[in-house]
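This follows on from our talk about sequence and fold. I would like you to pick a protein and set down its sequence and fold. Go ahead and set the record down below:
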Amino acid sequence: MGAISSFPIGKAQQTTKLHCGKPRIVIAGTGGDSGKTLISMGLTASWRLSGHKVAVFKKGPDYIDAAWLEFASGTRARNLDTYMMGREGVMDSFQRNCPDADLCLIEGNRGLFDGADKAGTHSTAELAKLLKAPVILVKDVTKVTRTAAVEILGCLKMDPDLNLAGVILNRVAGSRHERVVRESIESICGIPVFGAIPKLVNEKLLPGRHLGLITPSEHPELKGIGEKTAEIIDKYTDVNRITKLAETSPVLNSDSQSIESHSAPREAVRIAYFSDSAFTFYYQDNLDALQAAGAELIPVSSLESPLLPRCDGLYIGGGFPETHAERLSLNRSLIESVKNNIEGGLPVYAECGGLIYLCRSITYRGKSFSFSDVFPVDLEMITKPQGHGYMEVEVDAENPFFPQKTIIRGHEFHYSRIAKGGENILSAYKVKRGVGCSNKRDGLVYKNVLASYLHIHTGGAPGWAENFVKKARDLKVRK
């Protein structure tokens, strides 16, 4: 069972001292699209193919990069985000999910020092310092030589407490280009260049779209990608030196909460969740938290399952329902099954893509597709993000899962917005940071359904898993 940041009802919390001396490394970048994911995947796959078990983590709320790390490692990826989880939650999750690993890799996000404000709060650099992990910086050197050293030097001077230990060059134009950049960085900055990856002509290993990379479940040619990224890393970087750098990581010590049961086990409740190429955005910590609270998780294909299976609750995460809209809309038997169960009181928690599925329709690329009509709302997809970044909401109305005045931290990233309807629907959240549905509101409520654009992590949503399971158990008892 993986790390969770909240604890099941009927179980006591006990503070213990955790120690982690596992070799670890942070792969950071000088900006977005620098090549962090390709290099992180390749290094992970290389280690795995050489017989190492690798624990993988993604800094920030990103689901897609984490899915690719999971694919490369063959192990569950975890997200580490100090905004949503707090520093203690990050330390707890990291230390609980690395004991069985030989090596730990943490992929950063955006630029090394990019955070929530001008101080770089919640940045990759701050995470690396918290985890006492050496950092390798990926630098895209397209159309630049010696000036690359200036940027690296600036990163070194920016925070002397950060262990910025080396560089990997990406998109190198040729041998002369590599030599000049490498010599400039090593002589001016005094840190090693661990590798130089050329421009990979016609290599569409990780194609992207409007939310970033496509997900592994939707990749048209998934077979062999892990091996291919490992070949790139083995050919163009010094994996042995990188491994030895990871082994210099000091021991981490922290007080952490453990779980000790003092009550008899209760019969599990069945919580179904959509799990397919249309709905892939679930934090593993959230699923773990539901299980720890007493849930048996039942995966359901929103594209192929004709009916909702027998269950006491339904969790619909995010994903890309818009790109699967026609198939989803044609599966009317499942749509009607979900709607009928909701009318019967089924507790449902839905976020972003789940919200879309529960609305009346969505217009995507000029075509309208009908969905569940649980909420009489018509949505439309726009070419620009309608909400993007961290969110904070305050619960200020009755809903199935959170008491009023609860503060929830999460994030949003959606291109859809309400085009029509929603005026008379109860909403449970006052948006303190972010966009939400409209008019600084989010969290649509109908019977035992709560649906929003807010993506939550259990570390930033107090009591969510326990309350969800309790609501589902109440329904089970009434049946």
Q: What stands out?
A: The two ends are 30 Å apart (CA to CA). The domain at 268-478 is CATH 3.40.50.880 (Rossmann fold). The longest strand covers residues 11-20.
